[in-house]
Amino acid sequence: MRSLKDLEFWFVTGSQPLYGDDAIASCVAHADDMIKKMNGFGTLPCAVVNKGVVTCTEEITKIMKEVNYSDKCAGVIIFAHTFSPSKMWIKGLVDLNKPLLHLHTQYNRDIPYATMDMDFMNLNQSAHGDRETGFMATRLRMNRKIVVGHWEDPRVAEKIGGWMRSAAGIILGKELKICRFGDNMRFVGVTEGDKVETEIKLGWECNTYPVGGLVKGINAVTDAEVEEKLAEYTSKYDLNTDNLDSVKYQAKCEIAMEKFFKKNDFNAFTNTFQDLYGMEQLPGIATQNLMSKGIGYGGEGDWKIAALDTIMKKMAEGMPGGTAFMEDYTYHLEQGNEMIMGAHMLEVDPCVAATKPKIEVHELSIGDKGAPARLVFNGKGGKGITCCLVDMGGRLRLICADVEAVEPKVEMPKLPVARCLWRPLPDLLTSAEAWILAGGAHHTVLSFDLTAEHMRDYAEMAGIEFVHIHKDINITDFKRDLMLADIAYQIKGIK
Which pLDDT band, with edges at 50, 70 and 90, does 275 fall under? Predict the structure, then answer.
């Protein structure tokens, strides 16, 4: 699976021949200057590539077809420098099957009141041209991102960069392969889902593989490989156990999974404690360390969350906050100080740790296996989101909640797992009610890097439903919006 740095976005400037060759030459020069400076800002996660000025149907259609067939191009940015008649955009926009951003800007920031003449007006009329182009995209019912403002404004660059990350999630999702070791936890509903429809919609490929094959790989790991993995563990984490045999077994598990994933190009995986026949332990630090390297994970066979974890990690690539598999575990219901504790029996990603994680070995009261080594730590504080993807029966719903995480300041000596604390917005009672009304899952992806806007853009590009729980939410309005969404999808012929 590729990285963000492997992708680029094409910049197409719209004009027309009406104003003469000099005007077209100015458009070319301006677009070139804009793109060079935008790439030099250092705030965009991917490169912008100048694809020139288009002035007719044939030029636009040719470029859009090239966008579709370029493996490196993850989307297109359009900007109408002059008046660009929108009928010449129809065929190209109809053909386009990659993310689209409409940048509503202009080359000059200020109006040159003292010197402007009609030549200036004819050349610099994005306020005119972009409305024409925008009409056609709306007429075609196209999902696209609209960013408004001067192209040198840092806020504009931030918006474009955020959209690039969301678009990358769409493109890279078509390369995503999920390995399921066994099925999902018995009798659990929310971890189920239509894998065929999800692959059609999002490109995620999900198949199951026998645990016996993994056990065979574990047994084939050499002592030298184990020692090398132990050195990796102790360089990253504090060793807080004398039970090295358990840590070594976890090392074998990780090495075997790493080899299997590399051989088959897997980017996410699931397992469940009910289906690990032949293994001595549940994978603890093995899973956690793999997640720290960008491999997505979903507990109890939750393949949708495993995939979402990978996609959100890719979208957040290069950002410092951390994006991790999480589970809503228990509540603190002190009035006025309500919080959620997120944790899991073993598998919490160390990328969200507040301090250096410790390697510990403890008995596990589930799974009927030996005591596994795992990373124990408190999660960091900061603003973030929690997201889940649920199958509503014929359609996917992406649910996103704004949260404020707090680093735990109390000792938890009898809880030997990683744990995070956060306050949902506007408060736990309202947020939890909305989450349950929307059918939100107990497994989530917690991100300190991405925002609801990233996830909304992603959902719109993917053509799936998006639900946002935020500080200004009103439950009555929220119920109405869920009802209207159901009606809208029924009208479309989707349950």
Answer: confident
Other beta carbons within 10 angstroms of residue 1's beta carbon come to 18
What does DSSP assign to residue 263?
H
* Half-sphere CA count of 193, side-chain side, radius 13 A: 28
Strand partners, 353: 379
* Tens digit of each residue's pLDDT (9 = 90 or more) over 407-438: 998 999 999 999 999 999 999 999 999 999 99
Contact yes or no for 101/76 (Cβ under 8 A): yes
- The torsion angles phi and psi of 118, rounded to 5 degrees, stand at -70, -30
The CA distances from residue 475 to 37, 272, 426, 438, 444, in Å, are 45, 35, 11, 11, 21
Tell me the per-residue pLDDT of 216-267, one tens digit each, with 9 for 90 and over: 999 999 999 999 999 999 999 999 999 999 999 999 999 999 999 999 999 9
SS3 487: helix
The span from the CA of 53 to the CA of 15, in Å, is 7
**Closest to 157 (Cα-Cα) out of 68, 82, 77:** 77
Crossing angle for the helix pair 285-292 and 244-264, nearest 10 degrees?
Answer: 50
